[in-house]
Amino acid sequence: MRRTAAVTTIFAFGLIFGGYAQAAEIKALVSTAMKAPFGDIAAQFEKATGHKVIATFGPTGPLTKRVADGEMADVVILGGESTAALLGQGKIVMGSNAAAARGMIGAGVAKGAPKPDISSEATFKAALLNAKAIAVTDPAGGGSSGVYFSKLFEKMGLAETLKPKLRLAAGGPNGYAATFVIKGEADFAMQPIPELLAVPGIEVVGPLPGAFQNVTTYSASIPTSAKEPDAAKALIKALTAPEAAAIYRSKGLEPG
After folding, report:
1. pTM, two decimal places
2. What tens digit of pLDDT does each residue of 165-202 get?
3. What CA–CA distance (Å, rounded) separates 83 from 95?
4. Phi, psi of 78 (to 5 degrees)
5. Helices then strands (H, E): number in the chain?
6. CA–CA distance, 151 with 125 (Å, rounded to integer)
7. Among 25, 98, 120, 164, which residue's beta carbon has the most beta carbons within 10 A?
8. How far is it, in rounded angstroms, from Cα 10 to Cα 15?
9. H-type helices in the chain, by residue range?
10. What is the dihedral of CA 189, 80, 60, 192, to 10 degrees?
11. How many degrees, rounded to 5, is the angle at CA 54 between CA 49 and CA 57?
12. What is the pLDDT of residues 53-104, one digit of tens each?
């Protein structure tokens, strides 16, 4: 009988990690865009090893601050330059960090709704100007895409023009920008593609074009505050194993 993909992956993880004499409880702080794939990989890791993973998901900015302030965590997965910054502060175990996945920013609309043309830089700019309302993450919340769009709109010279059109989401798994689209309060939403896919009823139009795209690498690492560094190392191995690649791709990411 053919194994399902999930069972095959669990079996592979079991071969990689083997059994553990004592199960550990691993505390993880995970950037929102990694929520869906992390959940799948962690569940398979738990079955293969006997460890328990307790994850908190949120925008990269606030999670980075929590680690910088000394909060205990065994694994952190952060986007962009946050891991490098924490390494520089001595908050991450040197050599423990590994690129888990890469993600692009995209636009999404309600299924069946007209799709803006974002196929080129010119049509993307026109789509922004023609929209009645656009949903993005509030940069004040520390979400990496919200901070990015704040800078991008300034660079495009559209910050003041777009300001009254913006619908700002809180960020995190309970504050996706795409929820404004589902409620009919925005024409389209722009955020990391995995976050668009996480909202039922949203259809991804595509990635942002050319120079307006921002590819984020999500790195997994072990904070110096970790209580279970050996189990954390095993979890990072699972997150970066070849068997995890299909999971990342199914959630709108590419393996790191």
Report:
1. 0.87
2. 999 999 888 899 999 999 999 999 999 999 999 999 99
3. 11
4. -130, 150
5. 11, 11
6. 15
7. 98
8. 9
9. 5-17, 35-49, 60-68, 82-88, 121-130, 144-156, 159-162, 179-182, 193-197, 229-239, 245-250
10. 20
11. 130
12. 999 999 999 999 999 999 999 999 999 999 999 999 999 999 999 999 999 9
Shortest CA distance to 256 belongs to which of 104, 45, 103, 106? 103
Say how many CA atoms lie within 13 Å of 122 toward its Cβ. 0
Would you state the structure tokens that stand for residue 242, as one six-digit string?
């070849």
What would the two tokens of residue 49 be? 């090893």
> Residue 191: beta bridge partners?
106
CA 42 – CA 29 distance, rounded (Å): 13
Alpha helices in 32-104 (DSSP H): 35-49, 60-68, 82-88
How do residues 18-61 score in pLDDT, each as one tens digit? 555 578 999 999 999 999 999 999 999 999 999 999 999 999 99
User: Which structure tokens are listed for 201?
Assistant: 């009823």
Please give the Cα distance from 146 to 125 (Å, whole number): 18
Location of structure tokens 């925005």? 186
